[in-house]
Write a structure and sequence with these properties.
47% of the residues lie in helices and 10% in strands. It is of the alpha+beta class and 299 residues long. Strand 5 and strand 6 (259-262) form a beta hairpin. It is rod-shaped, with a radius of gyration of 41 Å.
Length: 299
């Protein structure tokens, strides 16, 4: 078999160029061709068919033109190889090879620049806390306010230290003694905790509708309910040694020991429990018994 000559090399290069052109042309009907042409169609064009025709022509030019240039260059080099000197022929062959290898990269870069960029998805925001004060809004809708520094309870209004701010708000309400305070211990995914929320809302609305709040002591005073999720206030839940959820700690007047209610309570039972704690009297303070004096070491 005769050794390969430069005629064979140029022929192989020409064949490869032709295959490259055919491959790019096949992408016109494949799924791999990027939708560049559709991005170049003028917006608001009245004729939809004209849009797709223009899109097809532009995409055909983008896909076929590089392969056609390589094919034409290889064909001209093959025809004029006899008239070219070896240095010129070698340099032209190297240039053609580089063009053959660089054409797909240039095409991909051009298509990537023309392809409209997809907007980046928004950064995930912090999850909304499950804890907060249950408040009745101005329009009659209830909202859970995790951070008392933002009365509207918006997610973007939650600041660093919201847990301490929520606890401080409850502590101040208890010390003021003008409102009855209820601590509700809840847990995410607890069905009875979810059923308790409407009961709490009804009790808050009932107290808010009283015309003379505080006329009957805490029994007619506004009701403030603070919900503490076990996953967000774990140390507090452990401190109270709760055995189940929901659990409620209801506060009364000054000197009255708060009372715990474990489990779900309906509307009537919860209202009755609030009234009992609100009307409870402080336990009498017993004076310490005087110590008996010892006489000569004997009683």
């Amino acid at each position: 078999m005769a050794p390969p000559t430069r005629h064979h090399a140029l022929g192989y290069l020409l064949l490869a160029s032709a295959l490259l052109a055919i491959h790019w042309a096949s992408e016109l009907i494949g799924d791999r061709a990027p939708p560049v042409a559709l991005a170049a169609v003028p917006a608001g064009s009245p004729n939809v068919l004209a849009q797709y025709v223009l899109a097809y022509v532009l995409r055909a030019v983008h896909v076929i033109l590089p392969g056609a240039l390589v094919l034409c260059a290889g064909s001209q080099l093959y025809k004029r190889q006899a008239t070219l000197s070896k240095p010129v022929l070698g340099a032209a062959s190297v240039a053609l090879v580089l063009l053959f290898l660089a054409a797909p990269l240039a095409l991909d870069a051009q298509l990537g620049a023309a392809t409209p960029q997809q907007p980046e998805p928004p950064a995930p925001s912090a999850p909304m806390p499950h804890s907060g004060e249950l408040r009745l809004g101005n329009q009659g809708a209830f909202v859970t306010v995790p951070d008392p520094r933002d009365p509207e309870g918006k997610p973007d209004g939650i600041q660093h230290g919201w847990q301490q701010a929520l606890w401080s708000s409850m502590t101040q309400a208890i010390q003021a003694g003008q409102e009855q305070v209820v601590m509700v211990f809840s847990r995410e995914g607890c069905p009875w905790c979810d059923r308790l929320v409407p009961v709490l809302e009804k009790a808050i609305a009932t107290r808010a509708a009283i015309e003379s709040p505080g006329a009957d002591g805490l029994a007619s005073a506004p009701l403030r309910v603070f919900i503490y999720d076990a996953g967000e206030f774990g140390p507090i839940v452990e401190k109270f040694q709760l055995q189940g959820f929901p659990s409620m700690l209801v506060f009364g007047g000054p000197g009255v020991k708060p009372r715990m209610a474990a489990g779900y309570l309906g509307d009537e039972d919860f209202a009755r429990f609030l009234d009992e704690v609100a009307r409870a009297q402080p336990e009498p303070v017993t004076a310490p018994k005087p110590k008996k004096r010892k006489l000569f070491g004997l009683r």
